[in-house]
Amino acid sequence: LEEMKRSQRVALEFSSLFQINQQEELGSGQFGTVFGGVHRSSGRRVAVKVIMKSRFGRKQKEQLRSEVCILQIIKYPGIITLEAMFETRDRVFVVMEKMQGDMLEMILSSRLGRLSERVTKYLIVQIVKALQYLHSQDIAHCDLKPENVLLNSVETDFPQTKLCDFGYARIIDENTFRKTVVGTPAYLAPEVLQKKGYNKRLDMWSLGVVIYVTLSGTFPFNEGEDIAEQIQNADFMYPSNPWREISADAVDLISKLLNVNIEERLTIDQCLAHPWLQDQQLYQDLQALERSLGISYLTTSMNTTTLNTNNNNNNNNNNNIDPQLIHF
């Protein structure tokens, strides 16, 4: 009876603060369906992930706990903001800031099915800076792919990007190696497939795949064949169409990221210092974005601890989020 009363109180609290628009389905993922919604008092648009607890197994519960834990401790303009979480007897409501699309949609809807180097650099450097922040906190994303890079606008070639979906993320320091297989097959690093142990550099491999896909519109590895074997041998090529139109610096960066040897693969700081991302036009494009947002976090010092991470435009302090309260 007490549990039922508590569940009713939480449901009332949620509905008093937020309204879900069930006609606006934004997508569905491993943790449920995401709908558009509104913060009632401010009118601010939000995204609400609605999770049916009855469909959850133990693994999914742990992934949700992990995602909530990690999103609680990270505050960075290039990472999606978790605003609140409410749990009733049969459902969990996870409230996040609302974005307008994702990088995969941007690639697929482009005229050539791939993006120009200028636009790709602009998107990639934002992803790299977000990863740099995560890695400085000893967090690996573990599922980097275009679908998990959200955009603040679909009306421009130069949107702000934010990383999302931290269900597979892990806390891993430089000397720690994990062995659990995580992530999406086409973007998995060879050491994950081999179960030899992995560290934060698995994100760098995934980043190499993301750059390859964004510039060419195709995967480096043929999904119709034994993709695991191809990945473990770094068995990929740069076909003349479209790679003859793409700079040698871009190819060099991808090749240094898609390196089977973990120790030789670029770190996040080495990636950021690569010549392909040292570009005056890129710097100007990023400065324009910072001016439009009113925050400076992309063109500042590489020292992530000094970054301006004051991206609090929702006045929410996450006080009602406690992953230990996920009881199901």
Automatic annotation (TrEMBL):
Transmembrane segments: none annotated. Residues 308-320 have a biased composition (Low complexity). Residues 308-328 are annotated as: Disordered. One of its GO terms (molecular function) is zinc ion binding. Residues 20-277 form the Protein kinase domain. Its cofactor is Mg(2+). The keyword Hydrolase does not apply. Keywords: ATP-binding, Kinase, Nucleotide-binding, Serine/threonine-protein kinase, Transferase. Pfam families: Pkinase. GO terms for cellular component: cytosol. One of its GO terms (biological process) is intracellular signal transduction. InterPro entries: Kinase-like_dom_sf, Prot_kinase_dom, Protein_kinase_ATP_BS, Ser/Thr_kinase_AS. ATP binds at residue 53. Belongs to the protein kinase superfamily. This is Serine/threonine-protein kinase dkf-1. It comes from Trichinella murrelli. The lineage of its organism: Eukaryota, Metazoa, Ecdysozoa, Nematoda, Enoplea.
